[in-house]
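Q: Here's a chain of 537 amino acids. Please give me its 3D structure as C-alpha cells.
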Amino acid sequence: MRGHEVRPTAVRTAITHTRLLDGTGNPEYLGDIVLESGLIADILPAGSFKDDGTTILIDGAGLVTCPGFIDLRSSSDTAPLTDPARHSALTQGVTTEVLGQNGANCAPLTDASASLLRHRLAGMAPEWADRDVQWRTVGQYLDHLDSGTGTNTAYLVPKDAVRALAMGSAAVAPSAQQLVTEVKAMADALEQGAVGLSSSAPGASATPAETAELEALCAAVGAYGGYWAPTRNSLAVPVAESVARSIALASKTGVPVHLTHLAADGAGAADLLSVLDRALKAGVDLTCDSHPYLENPGMLASLLPGWARDGQDEDVLARLDDPEAVARIRSELEASADIDWDAVTIAFVESGQLAMLVGQSIARIAAIQSSDPATTLVRILLTDSLATGVLYAAGTEDDLRAIMGHRTHTGAGVGFRSEAAAHPGGWGAFARFVGGFALEAKAMDLPAAIHQLTGRPAQRLHLANRGVLAAGNAADVLVFDPDAIIDMATFADPRQPAAGINHVFVNGVPAVSEHQPTSALAGRALRRGPEGTTQSL
C-alpha cells in the first residue's frame, strides 16, 4: 500500500427507480440495481427492492444508471503513479483506463529506463523525489498499480519498452537475435497481464528490418489474444494513408487493431471511414476511438518527416542543427499539401525564451519573424529541445460526428504531457460526448452513446465482467443526470469537473458521491488472463 492509504471496503448500495442503460446498446428500462461486495448483486423491477435497514439507498428517479465509462486512450501513462486518486477521470464517469500510449515507458524496464522514469516522475510529483522505481517487469508494475488507484487500469506495452530490453537506446534496426529477445519480452509481458502493444503507426520510410520488427511483435500479440494500438506518427502524413498502413500490417499479422485518436484532415472523414469499411469487409478485427473536440493535442516534432525523427532526441537535434538535413526537411515540408500552418498553434513550451509564442500559430510566428514555417519549426524545436506541444485543428463538426457514429468507434480521453497546458478533454471528453453530442446535438441516441463508452470498449479488452450491467459483474457503475451532464472544462480553464455526474462506483466503492470525488482508491489492475480474457485478481 502507499503510505497510510487503505483500500476502502464496499458496502451494499441500492439505486432505485432509475433509468437503466446496460451498456449493450439495448433500450433503457426502469429498475433497481443493488451493489454488494464489489459486484452487481441484483437488478430488480423498479420499486421492488426491500431495504432491511443495512443498505445505502440512492433515489435514482430521473437519473440514468449505466456501466462506468472505459477510456481506451487515457490522458497520461504516469497519472496513476503521480495522481492515484484520478479525480479528472472519475468526475467525468470513467472507471477504467488503458495506459501505455503516451510515450512514458513504465514497464518492462531496464535499470537505465527505470532511472529515466523516476526522473520524469520526480519532475511531476514531489513525493517521487524520495522514491525509487522498484518494479522492472509488467507483472510487478501491475502489482504496484493494484496497491491503490482511483480507477481500474489496463496496460499496453510500448514498443520502445521491449526494444530497450533487447538493445538499450540504440537507434538501429534490431539484429535477428535482438528481435528474438524483443518478441520474448513481449510474450512475457502478455503472460504477466498486459493487454497488448502500442506503437507509432508504420511509416513510409520504414526499412524492411523495421517493418519486420513491428510485424513480429504484432504477430506475438495476436497469438496471445491481445491487440495493437498504433498512433499516427506524423501530422505531415494524411490520416487515411497512416490508417491504411496500420490496417495492412494488422491484416498481414492477424493482430486485432485499435486505431487511436482518429481525426479527419483536409480530405474529410468520408475517405478515412471508407478505409475502415473496406478493412471490416475483408475481415480485419478493427476498432477506433476519437475525442469530441476539433482541437487535437500533439508534439511539434511530429510535423517533421519520419526520417528526421528517427533515433533518440540527441539524434533528432543533431539533424536540426545540420544545414543539409534542415534543407531537406524544408523541401519536404514545403512540398506537402497536408499541413495547414494556420491550424497549428503552440500550446506549451519548456524554454522561457519561447513563452511569448504560446497561443500563436506557426504561420503567424513565421510571418512575424519574416521566415517560412519550416524554418520557424526547426528553430523552435532546437531552442525547446523538442519539448514543444501544439494544438492542431482537424476536420469539421460534421467530420467529427461521422467518425463518432462509425460502428467501430469508442470514446477516448485527451491529455497533454505538460501540466502547464492541458486539453479540456482530460476532464470533460466523456461528459461532452454524452451531453453535447448524444443529448444536445442528437448525433446518436443515448443507448448507442453509452454502448460506445462501455460495452464496446469492454469487448475490445475482452473484459469478462465489466462494461455491462448484469448480476455478478463488477460494480463499476455510473449514475448521471441526463438533463445536466456536460463538460465544464475549457481551454482557458481546463481542469473543471464535468456537471451532471452524481455518483460513480469503482468495484462497488463510492468514488464520486453526490457530485464530489471521495479519493477512494478502489481501482484494480486488470490483467489479460486465459484465452485472452481480461480480469482483475
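Q: Can you summarize the key feature?
A: Residues 1-6 have pLDDT under 50 and may be disordered.
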